[in-house]
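Course assignment 3, question 2. Fill in each field.
Student: A.L.
Task: Predict the tertiary structure for the chain below.
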Amino acid sequence: MRELAGGPTVTTVDPVISVTVEGFLPDDYVPEVNQRLALYQRLAGAAGDAEVADLRAELADRFGPLPAAAGQLLDIVRIRVAARAVGVEKIEAGAGKALVTFSAATTLEPERLVRAIERSRGRLKMKREFTVEATIARGEWPRVRDSLLGLLDDLSRS
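Answer field:
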């Protein structure tokens, strides 16, 4: 409708996050299939860190302490929310590197990306159009997660 009216179009990006950990709600944690599906749907629609934090608290309240896989799922959702905010359509992370592919409709101005690359001191490099390679932390998942979130935060503030 906006395009027909001559206004700017808004494209919602649904980022794909590919990391070395698995994130899911184990059957023994949320035993009811319909509840699990409803929770996955809510997680997929999460629009901000506060909403993810609320879902984390709700899961802990309803089902007890989060198993590792459920915690990792919520971490991946946080990364997805941050990626969506800067128009990233895909992140492939592993072995200390992350390929970040932007949507053609990203709102990140090229000048901001250039500034981020300059400030990175070699940690960010353009690989091809719409794709940046970033050096990220290696090791345990919390370090990798924090590194990815920091990268996306840097890109959003550039």
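Instructor remarks: The chain has a mean pLDDT of 92. The longest helix spans residues 68-85.
Grade: pending
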